C-alpha cells in the first residue's frame, strides 16, 4: 500500500535547529512501496516547510556570524521559490508550516483585524500550519479575532492542525476562542493525498 505518514512533531524538532526565522527548506521524501502486482515502486514527495515566519512580509538585511550582510524574509521571495519547486515537481509538492507565523514586525499590529499572515499563506498554497507560542501573544481573544477575520476576508486559507490544544475555560476569553476554533475550523489532524500517497498531518505545540 502506498502510504507515508509525516509527523509534525518531527518537523518541529527540525525547525528548532534552524537559526533564523523564515528559512525556506525544500525536502524530498522517497518511499518504497509495493503496487498491486507486488513489485517495488518508488514514490516521490517534495516536502516544502517553513517555520517562524513572524510576519516578515518584507525582506530585511541581517549580519551573519562572520560579519557579512545577507537578506532574509519576504513573502514575495518565498512565493517565488515555492512556485519554482511546484514547476519542477508538479503534483508531488506538499507545503506546510510549523507555526509562529505571526508577531515580529509592524504588520502584526493588524493581526486581529486583517489576519494577513493566514490569508497570504492561503494565497501561496499552504496545505497546513499549526500554532506556535507567539500566535497566542494577543491572548485567547486576540487569536479568536484573528481566526474570525481570516474566515471573513478570504475563502482560501491553510488548514490549521492543533492536536494538543486544550481550551479549558480558565481564561475569560476561552469561550470566544473555542467558538473561533470550531468555526475556522481548526482540526486535530488531517489526511491528504499527493502523488498517490496518503499523508497524515498533525500539529503539536510544546
Indicate the CATH class: Alpha Beta
Q: CATH homologous superfamily, by name?
A: Metallo-dependent phosphatases
User: Any idea what the CATH architecture is?
Assistant: 4-Layer Sandwich
Main sheet specs: 3 strands, mixed
Percent of residues in beta strands? 25-35%
| Number of spatially distinct domains | 1
Termini separation (Å)?
32 Å
Q: Mean of the pLDDT scores?
A: 85
Radius of gyration, whole Å: 18 Å
Poorly predicted sequence stretches spanning 5 or more consecutive residues: 1-34
CATH topology: Purple Acid Phosphatase, chain A, domain 2
What overall form do the CA principal axes indicate? globular
Number of strands: 10
Short description:
Helix content is 30%, strand content 26%.
Question: Keywords, please?
Answer:
single chain; globular; 10 strands; 206 residues; 3-stranded mixed sheet; Purple Acid Phosphatase, chain A, domain 2
What does this protein structure show overall?
The chain has helices at residues 8-16, 75-88, 111-114, 116-124, 139-153, 174-183, and strands at 3-5, 25-34, 40-50, 60-63, 69-72, 93-97, 128-129, 159-160, 189-194, 197-202. The strands form 4 sheets. It has a 3-stranded mixed beta sheet, with no helix packed on it. Strands 2-3-6 form a 3-stranded mixed beta sheet, with helices on one face. Strands 4-5 form a two-stranded antiparallel sheet. It is of the alpha/beta class. It has one domain (3-202): Metallo-dependent phosphatases (Purple Acid Phosphatase, chain A, domain 2). The radius of gyration is 18 Å and the shape is globular.
Amino acid at each position: 500500500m502506498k502510504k507515508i505518514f509525516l509527523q509534525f512533531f518531527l518537523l518541529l524538532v527540525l525547525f528548532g535547529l534552524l537559526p533564523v526565522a523564515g528559512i525556506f527548506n525544500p525536502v524530498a521524501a522517497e518511499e518504497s512501496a509495493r503496487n498491486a502486482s507486488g513489485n517495488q515502486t518508488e514514490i516521490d514527495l517534495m516536502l516544502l516547510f517553513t517555520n517562524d515566519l513572524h510576519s516578515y512580509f518584507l525582506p530585511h538585511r541581517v549580519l551573519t556570524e562572520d560579519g557579512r550582510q545577507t537578506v532574509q524574509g519576504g513573502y514575495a521571495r518565498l512565493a517565488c521559490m515555492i512556485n519554482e519547486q511546484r514547476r519542477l515537481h508538479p503534483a508531488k509538492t506538499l507545503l506546510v508550516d510549523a507555526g509562529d507565523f505571526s508577531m515580529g514586525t509592524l504588520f502584526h499590529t493588524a493581526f486581529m483585524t486583517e489576519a494577513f499572515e493566514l490569508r497570504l499563506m492561503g494565497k501561496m498554497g499552504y496545505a497546513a500550519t499549526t500554532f506556535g507560542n507567539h500566535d497566542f501573544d494577543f491572548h485567547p481573544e486576540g487569536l479568536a479575532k484573528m481566526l474570525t477575520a481570516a474566515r471573513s476576508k478570504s475563502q482560501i486559507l491553510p488548514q490549521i492542525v492543533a492536536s494538543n490544544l486544550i481550551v479549558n475555560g480558565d481564561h475569560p476569553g476561552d469561550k470566544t476562542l473555542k467558538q473561533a476554533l470550531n468555526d475556522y475550523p481548526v482540526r486535530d489532524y488531517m489526511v491528504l493525498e499527493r502523488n498517490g500517497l496518503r499523508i497524515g498531518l498533525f500539529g503539536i505545540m510544546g
